[in-house]
């Protein structure tokens, strides 16, 4: 089963996506997601210039060998661009192998360990009434676990807070990447955030009761001691997790946070290698691995991370915002079913425009996602539809403190 053709498709049905499509000599196609929000064309060029020429003529069934060839063979290892490119190739080859076998991918990964993947949705509000409406809308839609992000008094815009109250339903209007010439500048004040957030969780718990799993994303903004303080302050509200409390590259920071709080910790959406996790896992400093298939070198590499995590009792909690394409989401769902140490799956539904380009078969019923039993990943790319939505440059925002200092966004 030789690779006959490889195409890189860049499309913007509401937001940008980079998709790799590999076709074998016998006409089987596989898809991989290579979307790196705000830096899409770097991955497209990496694939087009340096990877596609190496793939044509290779054995499409040699997935591990191709992974090693692209990783070790480049000499320059890791990094978000390289690993998103490798992820796309790896995922497309798994898609091909499963389609050739006539099976959904999760069967090739060992079969299902569960009937579906518990998904969490993003509720948010600029104030408590908006937040409560958004949580209710998510519960009505079937979510059984909810991420809570809130406006902060004194700050105009805050990460994760949608502009419309109900935010759930078929649309989710919080899209951080914006098609402006320069990144949008937001303002940030950690002290205001730390003063406000515990009171929000107190209010949410008293309105919605003790049982609902609640999550929160700190989005890399705190120092270790600030994060420790927040984790401790949130203990009475029994969070499912506190995510990205500190910037991800500082693994040792988690030691300090861990000494001070029993709030479960999740990190890893910006990681791209198993080597980003060695300290965190072997010292049991986190509870959930946040990596996405798209950004961590594909199904092959993320399965290894999750198997390593299992040794230490750490579970999966894969990244699933709208900048993970439906192809990346489907790949996540197959792994979610197949790994024993599944924890939860993030799920931000894509827009109708996106789903015109990517025809998905995964389902969301009673709070659980299922990848479907279609052969392969279960996603088809409509290339004509993709062509109707040309690329538009867009950037993630940046954050500044009141005195102008640039802060983590
Ligand atoms: O591209 C950036 C987003 O993927 C990120 O801001 C989303 O933090 C995020 C999350 O937890 O979904
Ligand atoms: Mg996050």
From TrEMBL:
Residues 129-264 form the Mandelate racemase/muconate lactonizing enzyme C-terminal domain. One of its GO terms (biological process) is carbohydrate catabolic process. Gene3D superfamilies: Enolase-like C-terminal domain, Enolase-like, N-terminal domain. It comes from the Bacteria. Signal peptide: none annotated. PROSITE patterns: MR_MLE_1 (PS00908). InterPro entries: D-mannonate_dehydratase-like, DgoD-like, Enolase-like_C_sf, Enolase-like_N, Enolase_C-like, Mandel_Rmase/mucon_lact_enz_CS, Mandelate_racemase_C, Mandelate_racemase_N_dom. This is D-mannonate dehydratase.
């Amino acid at each position: 089963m030789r690779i006959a053709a490889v195409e890189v498709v860049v499309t913007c049905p509401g937001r940008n996506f980079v998709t790799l499509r590999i076709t074998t000599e016998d006409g089987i196609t596989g898809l991989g997601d290579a979307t790196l929000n705000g830096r899409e064309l770097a991955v497209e060029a990496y694939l087009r210039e340096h990877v596609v020429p190496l793939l044509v003529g290779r054995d499409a069934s040699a997935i591990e060998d191709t992974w090693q060839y692209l990783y070790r063979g480049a000499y320059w290892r890791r990094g978000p661009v390289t690993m998103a490119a490798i992820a796309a190739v790896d995922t497309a080859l798994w898609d091909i192998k499963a389609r050739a076998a006539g099976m959904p991918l999760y069967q090739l990964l060992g079969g299902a360990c569960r009937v579906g993947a518990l998904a969490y949705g993003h509720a948010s509000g600029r104030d408590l009434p908006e937040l409560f409406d958004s949580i209710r809308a998510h519960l009505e839609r079937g979510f059984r676990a909810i991420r809570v992000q809130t406006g902060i008094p004194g700050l105009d815009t805050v990460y994760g807070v949608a502009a419309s109250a109900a935010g759930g339903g078929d649309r989710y209007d919080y899209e951080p990447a914006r098609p402006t010439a320069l990144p949008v500048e937001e303002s940030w004040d950690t002290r205001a955030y730390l003063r406000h957030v515990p009171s929000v969780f107190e209010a949410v718990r008293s309105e919605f009761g003790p049982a609902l799993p609640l999550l929160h994303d700190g989005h890399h903004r705190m120092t270790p001691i600030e994060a420790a303080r927040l984790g401790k302050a949130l203990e009475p509200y029994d969070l499912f997790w506190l995510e990205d409390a500190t910037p991800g590259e500082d693994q040792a920071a988690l030691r300090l946070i861990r000494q001070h709080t029993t709030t479960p910790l999740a990190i890893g959406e910006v990681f791209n290698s198993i080597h980003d996790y060695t300290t965190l896992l072997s010292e049991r400093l986190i509870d959930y691995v946040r990596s996405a298939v798209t950004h961590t070198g594909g199904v092959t590499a993320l399965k290894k991370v999750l198997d390593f995590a299992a040794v230490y009792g750490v579970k999966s909690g894969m990244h699933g915002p709208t900048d993970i394409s439906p192809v990346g989401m489907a790949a996540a769902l197959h792994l979610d079913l197949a790994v024993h140490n599944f924890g939860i799956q993030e799920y931000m539904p894509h827009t109708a425009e996106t789903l015109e380009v990517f025809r998905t078969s995964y389902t969301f019923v009673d709070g659980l996602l299922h990848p479907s039993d279609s052969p392969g990943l279960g996603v088809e790319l409509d290339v004509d539809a993709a062509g109707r939505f040309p690329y538009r440059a867009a950037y993630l925002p940046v954050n500044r403190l009141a005195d102008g200092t640039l802060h983590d966004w």
